[in-house]
Write a structure and sequence with these properties.
3-stranded antiparallel sheet; 22% strand; alpha+beta; binds zinc ion; 76 residues
Length: 76
């Protein structure tokens, strides 16, 4: 499984931090922080393990990064 992070979808920066934070006693959420533009992306859901939380946050980050190019959401 690849856990590489794509460049920031907003500024293209690659100076990124990813962490898993404890949400409550038994769950974690992941977050990715761009040090260039201070964007923070959180994982969609809370997870029982910090590893899963990080993976979910990375997936979401990479999805944003790729989708910002071709199929931009056109919600007003
Ligand atoms: Zn950025």
């Amino acid at each position: 499984m690849s856990d590489e992070l794509k460049p920031c979808p907003f500024c293209g920066g690659t100076d990124l931090d990813w962490t898993a934070e404890q949400a409550d006693a038994v769950t974690f959420f992941g977050q990715i922080h761009c040090n260039s533009c201070d964007t923070v992306v959180h994982s969609e859901e809370c997870w029982r393990s910090d590893e899963d939380a990080e993976i979910d946050a990375k997936d979401k980050w990479n999805f944003r990064s790729t989708s910002s190019d071709d199929s931009r959401e056109s919600k007003a």
